[in-house]
Amino acid sequence: MDNKFQKIRNDFPILKQKVNDEPLAYLDNAATSQKPQAVIDEIVRYYQNDNANTHRSVHTLGERATEEYEEARGKVQKFINAPESREIIFTKGTTDSLNLLAATYGETNINAGDEIVVSYMEHHSNLIPWQQLALRKHATLKYIELTADGQLDMDDASRKITDKTKIVAIAHVSNVLGVTNDIKKLAAITHQHNAVIIVDGAQAVPHQPVDVQALDVDFYAFSGHKMLGPMGIGVLYGKSKLLNAMPPYQYGGEMINFVEKYQSTWTDIPWKFEAGTQNVIGAIGLGKAIDYLTEIGMQNIADYEHELVSYALPKMLGIPGITVYGPHDSTVHNGVISFNLTNLHPHDLATALDMDGVAVRAGHHCAQPLMKYLGVVATARASFYFYNNRADVDQLLQAIQETKEFFKV
Ligand code: PMP
């Protein structure tokens, strides 16, 4: 394994601790990532030196805070190769970005009889906003099927996306099945039918290079906390033509042009969608996280994680009594491995693994329709990031073995 990645681990102070007298093997990165010292230091630096409200004050600190906040927007723009920085809206996270879209784009463009297409692998945050919009508007929600090994069925996508479709809302990478969807192809199909494609990139942007222009997506949402940034900050990218035509999401300070007694006008994008005091430190912290990720290189991160999956997946598949969901071919499986052991509830499994210092998640992973589709109520999930290594995988395998022996399963 690349020596550079072994050293990188030292940048993450939280990983140095022991849990239940064992070294911590943090394998819950799909839920949230840990933070490098550089991001932690940046948060302290900002609060010690520059803290002020943005876009309001002409004093020095106010100007500094505004400059740093807007600089962070520029870093996000570059990171996902958006054409313009005004196409980057800061939100609370992926969930907030998608709700914003349902409440603005969805509310104005969806009518009775229209169709919204999602897939069976959507996280609730890219499902419930569309489900509820469809209910409000008497529109139809359609689900793209999955193949037997848990990939998106592209033939079914071509059948489900029709001239009646107004929105296709789809995950770039599944938070359960470890698959990457062919967004470029889905965008082409969507545009053939004059619909818009909205992509949930929560599990993609932290792990692989993402270029919104190459993908030709209309909207793209992701969260800062899954990519080394603070919690409570996220991004919505949208094509400026679409964003300009959308009504505001929330009303209040900083999103207006003129306010009169009985009517108001709105300022330009992106600020039209950023009402009230923003999570300035969140944006600046995310900017620092992007600096850190860029320094390593997103392709290097993707390659390293792939190497880790190629090491872990065959070994996990070799455990008697294990079921691994999603493709069993490690060339198409990302660093999210969901699994179950026969006759053991995933919560018991996760609790037992924690006794051995291994942090995995157990549950429905905010994807209840997918659980039903797979015929399970819950799974355990080990999810990797670039600071994980083979020792973490070995610790997971050993802990699974011990758990099997303890529960005699
Ligand atoms: N979509 C996917 C695929 C996710 O994995 C998550 C986080 N688990 C979300 C959306 C929601 O992200 P957040 O909770 O940061 O809004």
TrEMBL record:
GO molecular function per UniProt: cysteine desulfurase activity; pyridoxal phosphate binding
Assigned keywords, A-Z: Pyridoxal phosphate, Transferase
Keyword Transferase: yes
Identification of the protein by name: Cysteine desulfurase
UniProt-listed GO biological process terms: cysteine metabolic process
Gene3D superfamilies: Aspartate Aminotransferase, domain 1 (3.90.1150.10), Type I PLP-dependent aspartate aminotransferase-like (Major domain) (3.40.640.10)
Species in which this protein is naturally found: Companilactobacillus nantensis DSM 16982
Catalytic activity: (sulfur carrier)-H + L-cysteine = (sulfur carrier)-SH + L-alanine
SUPFAM superfamilies per the UniProt record, alphabetical: PLP-dependent transferases (SSF53383)
Residues in Aminotransferase class V domain copies: 26-396
PROSITE patterns assigned: AA_TRANSFER_CLASS_5 (PS00595)
CDD domains registered for this protein in UniProt: SufS_like
Top EC group: transferase
EC number: 2.8.1.7
A family per Pfam: Aminotran_5
Family per similarity comment: Belongs to the class-V pyridoxal-phosphate-dependent aminotransferase family. Csd subfamily.
Cofactor(s) this protein requires: pyridoxal 5'-phosphate
Domain of life: Bacteria
Physiological role: Catalyzes the removal of elemental sulfur and selenium atoms from L-cysteine, L-cystine, L-selenocysteine, and L-selenocystine to produce L-alanine.
